[in-house]
Amino acid sequence: MSEQPRAAEQDPGRTPEPVVEDARDFAGVPDETERLWTPHRMAYIGGENKPKDPHDDQQCPFCSAPQRSDEDALIVHRGEVAYAILNLYPYNSGHLLVCPYRHVADYTDLTEAEVLEVAEITRTAMRVIREVSNPAGFNLGMNQGQVAGAGIAAHLHQHVVPRWMGDANFLPIVGRTKAVPIMLSDTRRLYAEAWG
Question: Which positions are catalytic?
Answer without folding.
Answer: 157
